[in-house]
Protein backbone atom coordinates (compact mmCIF):
# COMPACT_ATOMS: atom_id res chain seq x y z
CA UNK A 1 0.00 0.00 0.00
CA UNK A 2 1.49 3.36 -1.00
CA UNK A 3 2.01 5.92 1.78
CA UNK A 4 -0.87 8.39 1.60
CA UNK A 5 -0.47 12.16 1.88
CA UNK A 6 -2.50 13.91 4.56
CA UNK A 7 -4.26 17.27 4.31
CA UNK A 8 -1.61 18.62 6.68
CA UNK A 9 1.29 17.56 4.43
CA UNK A 10 -0.31 19.26 1.41
CA UNK A 11 -1.63 22.50 2.93
CA UNK A 12 1.56 24.59 2.52
CA UNK A 13 2.66 23.46 -0.94
CA UNK A 14 1.13 26.35 -2.88
CA UNK A 15 2.40 29.15 -0.61
CA UNK A 16 5.95 27.72 -0.61
CA UNK A 17 6.32 27.01 -4.37
CA UNK A 18 8.96 29.70 -4.89
CA UNK A 19 11.03 28.84 -1.80
CA UNK A 20 10.88 25.14 -2.72
CA UNK A 21 12.30 25.99 -6.16
CA UNK A 22 15.03 28.22 -4.69
CA UNK A 23 16.06 25.51 -2.22
CA UNK A 24 16.28 22.98 -5.05
CA UNK A 25 18.55 25.29 -7.05
CA UNK A 26 20.85 25.81 -4.07
CA UNK A 27 21.03 22.09 -3.24
CA UNK A 28 21.18 20.57 -6.74
CA UNK A 29 22.03 23.40 -9.15
CA UNK A 30 18.73 22.80 -10.97
CA UNK A 31 15.28 24.34 -10.65
CA UNK A 32 12.21 22.09 -10.71
CA UNK A 33 11.78 22.22 -14.51
CA UNK A 34 15.50 21.59 -15.18
CA UNK A 35 15.46 18.71 -12.68
CA UNK A 36 12.37 17.15 -14.30
CA UNK A 37 13.99 17.36 -17.75
CA UNK A 38 17.25 15.91 -16.40
CA UNK A 39 15.28 13.03 -14.85
CA UNK A 40 13.85 11.94 -18.20
CA UNK A 41 16.91 12.87 -20.24
CA UNK A 42 15.62 15.76 -22.34
CA UNK A 43 16.92 19.33 -22.44
CA UNK A 44 14.54 22.08 -21.22
CA UNK A 45 14.62 23.86 -24.58
CA UNK A 46 13.08 20.87 -26.39
CA UNK A 47 9.80 21.26 -24.51
CA UNK A 48 7.58 24.31 -25.03
CA UNK A 49 5.68 24.25 -21.75
CA UNK A 50 3.47 27.22 -22.77
CA UNK A 51 1.81 25.13 -25.49
CA UNK A 52 0.70 22.46 -23.04
CA UNK A 53 -2.74 22.39 -21.40
CA UNK A 54 -3.16 20.16 -18.33
CA UNK A 55 -6.38 19.07 -16.61
CA UNK A 56 -6.25 17.81 -13.00
CA UNK A 57 -9.23 15.61 -12.08
CA UNK A 58 -10.09 15.12 -8.38
CA UNK A 59 -10.98 11.49 -7.61
CA UNK A 60 -13.41 10.60 -4.80
CA UNK A 61 -12.87 6.79 -4.76
CA UNK A 62 -11.55 4.91 -1.71
CA UNK A 63 -10.32 7.24 1.02
CA UNK A 64 -11.46 10.16 -1.10
CA UNK A 65 -10.30 13.68 -1.74
CA UNK A 66 -7.19 15.09 -0.02
CA UNK A 67 -7.84 18.78 0.67
CA UNK A 68 -5.89 20.98 -1.79
CA UNK A 69 -4.20 17.95 -3.43
CA UNK A 70 -5.56 18.78 -6.91
CA UNK A 71 -5.04 22.53 -6.48
CA UNK A 72 -1.44 21.88 -5.42
CA UNK A 73 -0.83 19.62 -8.43
CA UNK A 74 -2.22 22.31 -10.76
CA UNK A 75 -0.10 25.08 -9.19
CA UNK A 76 3.09 22.98 -9.37
CA UNK A 77 2.39 22.41 -13.09
CA UNK A 78 1.64 26.11 -13.73
CA UNK A 79 5.00 27.00 -12.18
CA UNK A 80 6.63 24.89 -14.92
CA UNK A 81 5.04 27.29 -17.44
CA UNK A 82 2.23 24.98 -18.53
CA UNK A 83 -1.47 25.91 -18.49
CA UNK A 84 -3.24 23.89 -15.79
CA UNK A 85 -6.67 23.78 -14.14
CA UNK A 86 -8.66 21.57 -11.77
CA UNK A 87 -11.90 20.27 -13.31
CA UNK A 88 -15.20 21.44 -11.75
CA UNK A 89 -16.39 17.85 -11.35
CA UNK A 90 -14.49 14.87 -9.95
CA UNK A 91 -14.21 11.32 -11.35
CA UNK A 92 -15.67 10.44 -14.76
CA UNK A 93 -17.46 13.78 -15.20
CA UNK A 94 -14.13 15.51 -14.49
CA UNK A 95 -12.35 13.29 -17.00
CA UNK A 96 -14.99 14.16 -19.63
CA UNK A 97 -14.53 17.85 -18.81
CA UNK A 98 -10.75 17.61 -19.32
CA UNK A 99 -11.16 15.74 -22.60
CA UNK A 100 -13.72 18.21 -23.98
CA UNK A 101 -11.38 21.07 -22.97
CA UNK A 102 -8.84 19.44 -25.29
CA UNK A 103 -6.29 18.96 -22.53
CA UNK A 104 -2.96 17.56 -23.74
CA UNK A 105 -2.30 15.89 -20.38
CA UNK A 106 -4.72 14.68 -17.69
CA UNK A 107 -3.67 14.03 -14.07
CA UNK A 108 -5.65 11.82 -11.71
CA UNK A 109 -4.92 9.91 -8.50
CA UNK A 110 -6.81 7.29 -6.54
CA UNK A 111 -5.43 5.42 -3.51
CA UNK A 112 -3.40 3.02 -5.65
CA UNK A 113 -2.12 4.93 -8.71
CA UNK A 114 -1.28 8.56 -9.50
CA UNK A 115 -0.90 9.03 -13.26
CA UNK A 116 -0.54 11.69 -15.97
CA UNK A 117 -2.11 10.61 -19.27
CA UNK A 118 -0.99 12.00 -22.63
CA UNK A 119 -4.42 12.57 -24.23
CA UNK A 120 -2.89 12.58 -27.70
CA UNK A 121 -1.70 8.96 -27.62
CA UNK A 122 -2.84 7.42 -24.35
CA UNK A 123 0.66 6.86 -22.99
CA UNK A 124 1.00 7.79 -19.32
CA UNK A 125 3.50 8.66 -16.62
CA UNK A 126 3.13 7.35 -13.07
CA UNK A 127 4.16 8.96 -9.80
CA UNK A 128 6.34 6.07 -8.56
CA UNK A 129 8.71 6.15 -11.54
CA UNK A 130 8.63 9.94 -11.69
CA UNK A 131 9.39 10.38 -8.00
CA UNK A 132 12.25 7.87 -8.20
CA UNK A 133 13.75 9.46 -11.34
CA UNK A 134 13.35 13.01 -10.05
CA UNK A 135 14.90 12.35 -6.66
CA UNK A 136 17.76 10.35 -8.22
CA UNK A 137 18.54 13.34 -10.43
CA UNK A 138 18.41 15.54 -7.34
CA UNK A 139 20.90 13.27 -5.50
CA UNK A 140 23.17 13.25 -8.56
CA UNK A 141 23.06 17.06 -8.64
CA UNK A 142 23.68 17.48 -4.92
CA UNK A 143 26.53 14.92 -4.95
CA UNK A 144 27.97 16.32 -8.19
CA UNK A 145 27.69 12.91 -9.87
CA UNK A 146 27.08 9.37 -8.59
CA UNK A 147 29.46 7.28 -10.76
CA UNK A 148 31.85 5.24 -8.62
CA UNK A 149 30.24 6.39 -5.36
CA UNK A 150 28.52 4.37 -2.61
CA UNK A 151 24.80 5.09 -2.21
CA UNK A 152 22.43 3.68 0.42
CA UNK A 153 18.77 3.21 -0.56
CA UNK A 154 16.27 2.97 2.32
CA UNK A 155 13.05 1.22 1.30
CA UNK A 156 12.57 -1.47 -1.39
CA UNK A 157 9.02 -0.46 -2.28
CA UNK A 158 7.92 0.92 -5.66
CA UNK A 159 9.98 4.14 -5.44
CA UNK A 160 13.07 2.67 -3.72
CA UNK A 161 13.31 -0.28 -6.13
CA UNK A 162 13.16 1.94 -9.23
CA UNK A 163 15.65 4.34 -7.66
CA UNK A 164 18.10 1.51 -6.87
CA UNK A 165 18.02 0.38 -10.52
CA UNK A 166 18.52 3.95 -11.78
CA UNK A 167 21.42 4.62 -9.38
CA UNK A 168 23.14 1.33 -10.34
CA UNK A 169 22.76 2.33 -14.02
CA UNK A 170 24.65 5.54 -13.18
CA UNK A 171 27.65 3.49 -12.04
CA UNK A 172 27.23 3.79 -8.26
CA UNK A 173 27.70 1.02 -5.66
CA UNK A 174 24.22 0.57 -4.17
CA UNK A 175 23.33 -0.96 -0.81
CA UNK A 176 19.66 -1.36 0.06
CA UNK A 177 17.89 -1.73 3.40
CA UNK A 178 14.24 -2.59 3.95
CA UNK A 179 12.64 -3.56 7.26
CA UNK A 180 11.22 -6.48 5.25
CA UNK A 181 14.44 -8.34 4.40
CA UNK A 182 12.65 -10.48 1.84
CA UNK A 183 11.78 -7.39 -0.26
CA UNK A 184 15.43 -6.26 -0.23
CA UNK A 185 16.71 -9.74 -1.05
CA UNK A 186 14.19 -10.20 -3.87
CA UNK A 187 15.37 -6.93 -5.42
CA UNK A 188 19.05 -7.99 -5.07
CA UNK A 189 18.30 -10.99 -7.27
CA UNK A 190 17.18 -8.61 -10.04
CA UNK A 191 19.56 -5.68 -9.55
CA UNK A 192 23.29 -5.76 -8.70
CA UNK A 193 23.04 -4.34 -5.17
CA UNK A 194 24.17 -5.29 -1.67
CA UNK A 195 21.61 -5.90 1.09
CA UNK A 196 22.09 -4.38 4.57
CA UNK A 197 20.37 -5.99 7.55
CA UNK A 198 21.20 -3.23 10.08
CA UNK A 199 19.91 0.23 9.20
CA UNK A 200 22.08 1.98 11.83
CA UNK A 201 25.32 0.45 10.55
CA UNK A 202 24.28 1.12 6.94
CA UNK A 203 23.46 4.79 7.63
CA UNK A 204 26.64 5.45 9.63
CA UNK A 205 28.76 4.10 6.77
CA UNK A 206 27.20 6.14 3.94
CA UNK A 207 27.41 9.82 2.90
CA UNK A 208 24.81 9.55 0.12
CA UNK A 209 21.35 8.25 0.98
CA UNK A 210 18.16 7.88 -1.07
CA UNK A 211 15.32 7.56 1.43
CA UNK A 212 12.06 6.06 0.13
CA UNK A 213 10.90 4.71 3.47
CA UNK A 214 8.07 5.98 5.72
CA UNK A 215 10.16 5.32 8.86
CA UNK A 216 11.79 8.03 11.02
CA UNK A 217 15.59 8.35 10.74
CA UNK A 218 17.40 8.45 14.08
CA UNK A 219 19.90 11.30 14.50
CA UNK A 220 22.62 9.12 16.03
CA UNK A 221 22.58 6.88 12.97
CA UNK A 222 23.30 9.82 10.62
CA UNK A 223 26.83 10.40 9.39
CA UNK A 224 27.94 14.04 9.84
CA UNK A 225 27.70 15.89 6.52
CA UNK A 226 25.67 13.27 4.67
CA UNK A 227 23.32 14.13 1.80
CA UNK A 228 19.75 12.76 1.76
CA UNK A 229 17.47 12.70 -1.25
CA UNK A 230 14.31 11.91 0.66
CA UNK A 231 10.91 11.53 -1.08
CA UNK A 232 9.70 9.29 1.76
CA UNK A 233 6.67 10.58 3.66
CA UNK A 234 6.25 11.57 6.44
CA UNK A 235 9.42 13.74 6.72
CA UNK A 236 11.79 11.48 8.71
CA UNK A 237 14.18 13.90 10.48
CA UNK A 238 14.01 15.49 13.92
CA UNK A 239 15.95 18.68 14.78
CA UNK A 240 18.96 16.71 16.04
CA UNK A 241 19.12 14.82 12.75
CA UNK A 242 18.84 17.98 10.66
CA UNK A 243 21.88 19.43 12.48
CA UNK A 244 24.05 16.55 11.24
CA UNK A 245 23.07 16.40 7.56
CA UNK A 246 24.73 18.49 4.83
CA UNK A 247 21.58 18.55 2.68
CA UNK A 248 18.06 17.08 2.61
CA UNK A 249 16.04 17.19 -0.61
CA UNK A 250 12.36 16.68 0.23
CA UNK A 251 8.92 17.86 -0.82
CA UNK A 252 5.49 16.22 -0.48
CA UNK A 253 4.60 16.34 -4.22
CA UNK A 254 6.56 18.89 -6.27
CA UNK A 255 9.40 16.88 -7.87
CA UNK A 256 7.21 13.83 -8.65
CA UNK A 257 4.47 15.94 -10.26
CA UNK A 258 6.98 17.96 -12.31
CA UNK A 259 8.59 14.80 -13.73
CA UNK A 260 5.14 13.37 -14.50
CA UNK A 261 4.17 16.53 -16.42
CA UNK A 262 7.41 16.67 -18.42
CA UNK A 263 7.51 12.92 -19.09
CA UNK A 264 3.89 12.69 -20.27
CA UNK A 265 4.42 15.77 -22.46
CA UNK A 266 7.54 14.13 -23.93
CA UNK A 267 5.37 11.23 -25.15
CA UNK A 268 4.04 13.61 -27.85
CA UNK A 269 5.91 14.46 -30.98
CA UNK A 270 5.14 18.11 -31.90
CA UNK A 271 2.41 16.97 -34.32
CA UNK A 272 0.71 14.79 -31.71
CA UNK A 273 -0.32 17.48 -29.20
CA UNK A 274 -4.05 17.03 -28.74
CA UNK A 275 -5.51 20.07 -30.55
O1 LIG B 1 -7.75 14.32 -3.93
C1 LIG B 1 -7.76 13.31 -4.66
O2 LIG B 1 -8.09 13.32 -5.87
C2 LIG B 1 -7.33 12.00 -4.04
N1 LIG B 1 -7.99 10.87 -4.71
C3 LIG B 1 -5.80 11.89 -4.16
C4 LIG B 1 -5.27 10.61 -3.49
C5 LIG B 1 -3.75 10.52 -3.60
C6 LIG B 1 -3.26 9.27 -2.89
N2 LIG B 1 -1.83 9.08 -3.12
C7 LIG B 1 -0.92 9.61 -2.28
O3 LIG B 1 -1.20 10.24 -1.29
C8 LIG B 1 0.53 9.38 -2.66
C9 LIG B 1 1.22 10.69 -2.88
C10 LIG B 1 2.50 10.70 -2.10
C11 LIG B 1 1.57 10.73 -4.32
C12 LIG B 1 1.38 9.39 -4.74
N3 LIG B 1 0.75 8.71 -3.85
Strand order of the largest sheet: 8-7-6-9-10-11
Task: Please give the CATH class of the largest domain.
Answer: Alpha Beta
Average per-residue pLDDT, rounded, comes to 96
Taken as a percent bin, the fraction of beta residues is: 15-25%
Structural shape: globular
Tell me the number of structural domains: 2
In quaternary terms, these chains amount to single chain
Amino- and carboxy-terminal Cα gap = 37 Å
Number of helices: 11
Structural class: alpha/beta
CATH architecture verdict of the largest domain: 3-Layer(aba) Sandwich
> Biggest sheet: strands, sense, closure?
6 strands, parallel
In this entry the ligands are: ligand 2YC
Q: SSE order in H/E notation?
A: HHHEHEHEEEHEHEHEHEEHEH
Topology, number of strands: 11
Radius of gyration: 18 Å
Low-confidence stretches: 271-275
Please name the CATH topology of the largest domain: Rossmann fold
Helix proportion of residues, in percent? 25-40%
Mind sketching the topology for me?
Layout: H1 7-10, H2 17-28, H3 32-40, E1 53-57, H4 69-79, E2 83-86, H5 91-100, E3 105-109, E4 114-118, E5 124-126, H6 127-142, E6 150-154, H7 158-169, E7 173-177, H8 181-190, E8 194-195, H9 199-204, E9 208-211, E10 227-229, H10 239-244, E11 247-249, H11 254-266
Parallel strand pairs: 1-2, 1-3, 6-7, 6-9, 7-8, 9-10, 10-11
Antiparallel strand pairs: 3-4, 4-5
Amino acid sequence: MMTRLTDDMVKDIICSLDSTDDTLVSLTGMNTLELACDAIGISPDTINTHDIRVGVVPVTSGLGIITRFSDSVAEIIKKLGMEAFVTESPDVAGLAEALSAKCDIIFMADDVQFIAINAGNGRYSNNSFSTAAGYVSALKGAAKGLAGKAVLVLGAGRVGSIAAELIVSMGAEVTIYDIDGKKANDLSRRVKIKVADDVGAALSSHDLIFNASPAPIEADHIREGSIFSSPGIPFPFDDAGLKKVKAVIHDPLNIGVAVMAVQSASFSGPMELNR
